[in-house]
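G., the chain you wanted modeled:
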Amino acid sequence: MTATDRSIELIHTAAQAAADKLAHDIIAYDVSDVLSITDAFLLASAPNDRQVKSIVDEIEERLQKELGAKPVRREGDREARWVLLDYVDIVVHVQHSEERVFYALERLWKDCPELELPADAKATRGKAAEHAELRAAEEAADLGGEW
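Predicted structure as tokens:
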């Protein structure tokens, strides 16, 4: 089995929506050979809860408007640390950067084929690490000023 054309269309639209809202490290896997419940997973992250929510809202809006797709399930909304959108054909995981590192979903699905994504989405790879380094430098500078 491989991901269907519909799944790929959903993944591309969701990935572009996430990239437009400045998500970090967007990646998609074809999980159709190992899971019977869905064809593909999309993973994306953001450095704060508000941005996680913004990315989720944009993905939902775009998939509804452009492809007529509504999630059958939405979980993790209240905390906005890890929001899951289940569209049956695909499952979207938008995680706070800390949860992304802790749960490391990429490790679970690394044996599955990676799906090709729009250029804007691919350009987000490594953004979480860049952001973490920038934050660490800012915090170090703040601490340096207090001594």
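DSSP finds six helices and five strands in the chain.

Shout if anything looks off.
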